[in-house]
Amino acid sequence: MTDLLVPHRFRGPARSGNGGFTAGALAALLEGEPLGRTVRVTLRQPPPLDTPMAVTDGVAVDHAGAVVAAAEVVDEPLDPVEAVDPATAAAASASYAALQRHPFPTCFACGTAREPGDGLRIFPGRVDDADDRARVAAAWTPDRSVAGDLFAVAWAALDCVGGWTSDLEDRPMVLGRMTARIDAVPEPGTPYVVVGGARGEDGRKVHTASTLWHPDGSAIGVAAHTWITVDPDSFN
Length: 236
Description:
The chain is mainly β and about 240 residues long. The chain has helices spanning about 20-25, 85-90, 150-155, 160-165, and strands at about 1-5, 40-45, 55, 60, 65-75, 125-130, 135-140, 175-180, 190-200, 205-215, 220-230. A hairpin with a 6-residue loop joins strand 6 (about 125-130) and strand 7.
């Protein structure tokens, strides 16, 4: 048994952990080499902040014994979302839907209330217009302050970019499940492109995908997500 702890810096909504960071931190605790394998993490409830969660066989439980998240290695193909050139990705951030109104402005990955060097400030904007094939992109250069958490930070970088393929500002959602494979951790100071793609909806569930592209043209991380629509007042 070991512990999973999500520091306050890595929050998503104001009172709980960023889903991608939490999922990545839990995935890293599974036995074996974390790079190059596909892990599926299901989030059962909002991850508590600054509170140790006991982890046994990939299952994290809170102090009351309730399951917060569960991780498992899976044999599931993850197709990359088509790449976007760096200039297009950088320009797309100007149309980021949350610049005026964000349901979770404190989010470590995409929050507009986070300062440079604190949050990732990944602000994805539309690069495709059709809703049924919506694609968003952002440029991202990791700050040196995340050097000690790069595996979990890679999951965080692949997280919210998927959600912003939908109208997240008008229909807030939180991450319910994320499946990801990280082939190489991002390097501080290196410019990357993060791309998200829509993959369909099913009632309150929204399905998306994302890819982290290295400047050499390789995909160093791929992910698929299931989002659940929520009342943001229950999380902030």
